[in-house]
Amino acid sequence: MTQPTLKVQDVCKSFSGYKAVDRVSFSLSPGERIALLGHNGAGKTTLFKLVLGFLKSDGGGISVLGAAPGSHEARRNTAYLPESVAFPASLTGKEVLVFYARLKGEKPSGAMDLLERVGLADAAKRRVGTYSKGMRQRLGLAQALIGHPRLVLLDEPTSGLDPVSRQNVYELIGEIANRGTTVLLSSHALTELEARTDRVLILSKGRLVADDDLSRLRTQAGLPIRLKVWTRPEDLAQVSESLGGGRVNGRSVEFDCRADDKIRTLSAIGALGDLVEDVDVHAPSLDDVYRHFSNAAQKET
Amino acid sequence: MLSRILTVAGQEIRIGIRNRWILLAAVILAVFSLALALLGSAPAGTLGVDRLTITVASLASLSVYLVPLIALLLAFDAICGEVERGTLLMTLSCPISRFEFLLGKAAGHTLVLSFALVAGYGLTAGLLVLLGSGSVAGLTDFLRLIATSILLGICFLAVGYLLSSLTRQSRTAAAASIAAWLVLVVLYDLALLGALVANPSGAFASEFFPYAVLINPADAFRLFNLAALGASDLVGGMAGVTEALPFDPALALASLAAFAALTFAASVLLVRRIAP
User: Fold this and answer.
1) Which terminus in chain A has less CB density within 10 A, N or C?
2) In terms of Cα–Cα distance, which of B231, B39, B235, B226 is closest to B128?
């Protein structure tokens, strides 16, 4: 068993009585891509700041590659992109990257290469003040990729980005994870995380309510799969009856089925033969799963 | 460690150049000092004192007002501005200690201030020498003025960092800086003067007053420069004070250095406590 990149054990943090982080424990391994989800104020940023050593936890322990958070050793191996960052507007993108490369003790010559990787090579010599929001975000991401960090913390790395740039961000995340770097990112845009993260952590009111990969979380949530069967208007009644009811509208029949019932139901639809024109299978999205866990946690409290 | 300090300092200088901060400060200092040199000392022409020296005496009084203001304007944003913009989070997540960070900022700002002082005052000195009204002794006075102005600037840079790490918003820090300038540079003198006028021969005037002048960096700066000119009688102003001092005027220089060091140390302690 290799040493975990980040180990968080029973960590608590409260601000004047309000519990921002409440007995959170998890452990991240090298090369994992983990999404940290949670509503606004769920404690995501607080958790990041605890891991970086900017805040002291009230209880519990955090270790970054065996070192204390905020120690020189921990910071040497960690890269961080804050949620909103405004670089000095009068400097160029390249100058900003060279600055951070020097602070991290890396060669500034790699700056151009990094700018290329985030698609900012053409804008390298322009002032950051002229950058669009997406370009500034990508510059921040380039900053987090300087050197060879073993733990990368990204606070909402895709906020304000267009779909193509988002795609690029996830490609980059995939690349660095393949080199053995652990990437922990927080996000609001849940659906885009599907197939791009290995694991999902869900925070709700400071408590960790879920920690697993997405398909297993789906199973745990037990959310139904929604099926929509298209047919000819004259066959509607027959189709509806043989599939055990459901909502009938115009040319289709809609009904839910449990995840473990999916194959049996699909073969029942298949058995209808020519009566069926088309089938839509809508698995619960990450949004649905997230809402399930988040709501369940709030009901408990 | 050194490379990280130099990196932060270099960034501050670069920003100072890009924002035309250096240019602006140098122009302000040049305009005021030229005005003083060419117009203000015109009546002193018959006194037989080096014109450069007379100008230095006027500039010392100018520096007391301008240099702290420029230093505070450079420094007030240093911590809370970076907190607001989120860059402090990012910078401090790099392996740089907060002491190195602040020292780098201070070094950068000191160099920015030095460029402005050398360019602004240097222009005036150069012009006076070209006009044939300067001597070597006058130039030494000029160099001393620039060097001590830089030291005065460092004192107020440190005050700026202190206020910047105590406040959460850069607007609040700006207001606090203006207030600090007003108190240390203007009101402090007025209060001392008022007390002196109210009781010119009491224990206050002889025992307390000289030391009250010594511990304020702005006053200590003026005291040292005017005393060092040796031409106090001709220049007027603090003449009576410097001769009646119960200590060596060099102590004023030590006081400036101590003020800068203590205030900077205090701001390092405060920056360590910040959770960005």
Assistant:
1) N
2) B39
| Buried residues in A149-164 as b, exposed as e (16+ CB within 10 A) | bbbbbbbbbbbebeee
Cβ within 8 Å, pair A82-B90: yes
Which of A138, A54, A148 has its CA nearest to residue A96? A138
Cα separation of B6 and B96, whole Å? 12
Q: Which domains does chain A have, with CATH numbers?
A: 1-77+149-220+285-301 (3.40.50.300), 83-147 (no CATH), 224-283 (3.30.70)
Residue B270: which residues within 8 A CB-CB, separation 6 or more? B162, B165, B166
Do A78 and B87 lie within an 8 Å CB cutoff?
no
Sequence-separated (6 or more) residues with CB below 8 Å from residue A112: A94, A121, A124
pLDDT digits (tens, 9 = 90+) for A109-162: 888 888 998 888 898 899 999 998 888 888 998 999 898 899 999 998 887 788
Q: ipTM of this complex > 0.90?
A: no
**pLDDT tens per residue, chain B (276 residues)?**
889 999 999 999 999 999 888 999 999 999 998 888 877 655 555 555 667 777 888 888 889 999 999 999 999 999 999 998 889 999 999 999 999 999 999 999 999 999 999 999 999 888 888 877 667 777 888 889 999 999 999 999 999 999 999 998 889 999 999 999 999 999 998 998 888 888 777 777 777 888 888 899 999 998 888 888 765 455 554 455 556 677 777 888 999 999 999 999 999 999 998 887
Return the residue in A72, A102, A148 with the most chain B beta carbons within 10 A, the one to mutate for interface testing: A102
Q: What sign does the dihedral A145-A13-B83-B2 (CA atoms) show?
A: negative
Burial label, A167 (beta-carbon count in 10 A; 0-12, 13-18, 19+): middle
Question: Which residues sit opposite A202 in a β-bridge?
Answer: A37, A210
Per domain, the residue ranges of chain B are 2-264
Whole-structure pTM value: 0.86
Asked whether the beta carbons of residue A79 and residue B93 sit closer than 8 angstroms, the reply is yes
Q: Which of B83, B89, B272 to probe by mutation at the A interface, max A CB count within 10 Å?
A: B89
Task: Please state, in angstroms and rounded to a whole number, the distance separating the CA atoms of residues A61 and A71.
Answer: 14
